[in-house]
Amino acid sequence: MIVLLTILLCAGILISGLLAVLLDNIISAVISSGLASLFASVVYVVLAAPDVAMTEASIGSGLSTMIFLYAIRKTRNGNES
Amino acid sequence: MVDIVLDIAFVLIFLGMVFGIIRFVIGPEIVDRVVAIDLLTIIAIAVIALLAHVADRFIYLDVALVYGLLSFLGVLAVARYLEKGF
Fold it and tell me: Where in the sequence is the domain holding B40, given as residue range(s)?
């Protein structure tokens, strides 16, 4: 059961990474990179590294999304997509 | 009895994650993807709690706690961006 769940999590990392590259809308691409970080954090827990998972959850999924959105707002001057 | 309940929980979490990923992939709007990533975050917390029981290491529950405290920040940032541009 854990093996099937791990395979699904790794497939989720692959799918969200592909979506982060291929999507046209830039906000959707940022959300996709956050989703890849989320799946990677759960895979770290499966690999018995809870401290790495905690750091990945706080920085990769929370902080980097906010910093990306702030940078998009600062550089694009309001007009998105 | 406990094994049967754990197997049922694994199957349900598996199906929920599959449907969440499908919703994320085919979601045409940004809002669909934001809701899908919120759903997948809650499912990930459930996965971590279940792994803490299966592996019998309760330090994993701290990871789930930190995740539950910090996971709404990304959704909140995207919602604020969509509403009035950060």
Answer: 2-84
A66 with B67: Cβ contact below 8 A: no
Instruction: Look at residue B40 in the predicted model and tell me its pLDDT.
Output: 92
Number of independent structural domains in chain B: 1
Quote ipTM for the complex: 0.87
Write out chain B residues lying below 8 Å of A4, CB-based: 10, 14
The residues, any chain, with a CB within 8 Å of residue B20's CB and separated by 6 or more, are B36, B39, B40, B43
User: Residue A62 and residue B67: Cα distance in Å, rounded?
Assistant: 9
CA distance A60 to A63: 6
Q: For residue range A35-75, what is the model confidence (pLDDT) as tens digits?
A: 999 999 999 999 989 899 888 888 888 888 889 888 888 88
